[in-house]
Specification:
By secondary structure, this protein is of the alpha+beta class. Helices cover about 25% and strands about 30% of the residues. The protein contains seven helices and 19 strands. α5 crosses α7. The structure holds pyridoxal-5'-phosphate (PLP). The site of pyridoxal-5'-phosphate (PLP) has 13 residues, from β13 and α5. Pyridoxal-5'-phosphate (PLP) binds next to β13 and α5.
C-alpha cells in the first residue's frame, strides 16, 4: 500500500457538532486503478478531485457500483467496523453482475482499515454518530464504444455522519413503477438503480409521500423494498420480510435484524409479503408496524401507506411497544460497543498508522 499523507489536514476546521453529512469529506481517500487486466497499487492519497473526460465509459454506459458502510467510535475512542466482510462480498457480487473486475481483500478490507485508521480523528463520537464510508468501482476507459471497459477505478471516500433519528414517513405502495426486474440488476448495488428510482420517487413526493414501497415488476402484488432500504412488516407479533432474490438487495441491516429478532425470541418469517394481506391487516387492526432498514439511517418507521389513492394510517406505537425501535437499539448498541457481540460482527480497527 502506498500512503501519501496530506500536508493540509482540514481536521482543525471540522466541527463534530456542526457539519453537513455527505458534503464533508475526511482528509484522505483510497484509490486503485485497473488496467491491462490487473489492479495496480492500493494508494491512500489526500481527498480531492481527479481528472476524467466526459468520454469516460462509466458515465456513458453506467458500469458503476458502490457500497455503504460505517465506522463507529466508542466512548474510549476505539474504532469499529460492522460486518465489513459482507460489504466486501457484496461489492464483488455487484462487480460481477456489471461485468467489472472483482476487487481483492487487500484493496477492500486493507484499504478500508488503513483509511479509517489514518483518519480516525474524523469519526465523531457520541450517540448516533459515525463515519459513513463509500467504497465504489467505476469504468474509466476513454472510449465511446458500448462494450465492457478495460479500465476501472476502485475508490473509498468517507463522510462523517450524525444521529439518524428520522420522523415517521408516509410511503406509497407502487402499482406501476419498479425498482428491479427479473433477470435485472436489482440485487447489485448498481449506481443506475438509484438513477432509475428518482423519477418515480419524485412523483410520489408530489402526491404527498416521502418514499416508495417497491413491488414486483410482474404483478405489483408483492412487497420488495422500500426506497433504498429492505422492508419489514409486523402483523400481530410476527415480523415478515421478503426473501432476497435477484430483485431484492441482500442488506446487511436486514440480515442483522433477522438474527437480532431471533435472539430476542421474536417470530420472524422470511416469506413473500402480499400487498393485499398488508392492506387487509391494516383494515382489521392486526397491522402493527411497517419499516425500512439500511446502513444509512438504520430504521425508517412508516406512519401511513398509500395504495391506489387511499391513505392507510398505521398505529403510533411507543418506543417500548415497537419492534422496529427495539431491534434498532439492539443493533446500534452492538455496533457502537455498548453491548456484547455474541455474533462476532464488530471488527476493531487497530491503531497502527500515525495520525496526521
Ligand atoms: C444498500 C441498500 C440496502 C441496504 O443494505 P444495507 O447493507 O443494510 O445497508 C437495501 N436496499 C437497497 C436497494 C440498497 O441499495
Amino acid at each position: 500500500m502506498i500512503i501519501q499523507k496530506t500536508e493540509n489536514s482540514r481536521i482543525s476546521a471540522f466541527d463534530p457538532e456542526n457539519f453537513s453529512f455527505g458534503n464533508t469529506f475526511i482528509d484522505h481517500m483510497v484509490i486503485c486503478e485497473y488496467e491491462d487486466g490487473k489492479w495496480g497499487d492500493v494508494k491512500i492519497v489526500p481527498y480531492g478531485p481527479l481528472l476524467f473526460t466526459p468520454a469516460m465509459m462509466g458515465v456513458n454506459y453506467g458500469q458503476a457500483c458502490f457500497e455503504g458502510m460505517k465506522a463507529y467510535k466508542d466512548k474510549d475512542g476505539q474504532v469499529f467496523l460492522f460486518r465489513p466482510e459482507k460489504n466486501f462480498e457484496r461489492i464483488n457480487k455487484s462487480a460481477k453482475r456489471l461485468a467489472m473486475p472483482e476487487v481483492t481483500e487487500e484493496m477492500f478490507l486493507g484499504g478500508l482499515k488503513a483509511l479509517v485508521d489514518i483518519d480516525r480523528e474524523w469519526i465523531p463520537q457520541g450517540e448516533g454518530m459515525s463515519l459513513y464510508i463509500r467504497p465504489l468501482i467505476f469504468a474509466t476507459e476513454e472510449a465511446l464504444k458500448a462494450r465492457v471497459s478495460n479500465k476501472y477505478m476502485f475508490a473509498i471516500v468517507a463522510t462523517p455522519a450524525k444521529s439518524y433519528y428520522t420522523e415517521p414517513v408516509s410511503v406509497k405502495i407502487s402499482d406501476h413503477y419498479s425498482r428491479a426486474a427479473s433477470g435485472g440488476v436489482g440485487s447489485a448495488k448498481a449506481a443506475g438503480n438509484y438513477a432509475a428510482s428518482f423519477y418515480p420517487t419524485q412523483l410520489a413526493i408530489e402526491e404527498g409521500y416521502e418514499q416508495i414501497i417497491w413491488t414486483d415488476d410482474a404483478t405489483h402484488e408483492y412487497f420488495e423494498e422500500s426506497g433504498t432500504m429492505n422492508v419489514f412488516v409486523r402483523i400481530n407479533d410476527t415480523i415478515f420480510t421478503p426473501p432476497t432474490s435477484e430483485k431484492i438487495l441482500d442488506g446487511v441491516t436486514r440480515d442483522s435484524f433477522i438474527q437480532l429478532a431471533g435472539k430476542r425470541g421474536i417470530e420472524v418469517k422470511v416469506e413473500p409479503i402480499k400487498v393485499k394481506d398488508v392492506i387487509e391487516a391494516q383494515k382489521n387492526g392486526t397491522l402493527k408496524e411497517v419499516w425500512g432498514v439500511g446502513t444509512a439511517v438504520v430504521t425508517t418507521v412508516f406512519q401511513a401507506l398509500g395504495y391506489q389513492g387511499e391513505k392507510l394510517e398505521l398505529p403510533r406505537l411507543s418506543a417500548e411497544e415497537s419492534y422496529a425501535e427495539l431491534l434498532k437499539n439492539d443493533l446500534v448498541d452492538l455496533q457502537t460497543n455498548h453491548a456484547e457481540d455474541p455474533f462476532g460482527w464488530r471488527v476493531q480497527v487497530d491503531h497502527v498508522m500515525e495520525s496526521v
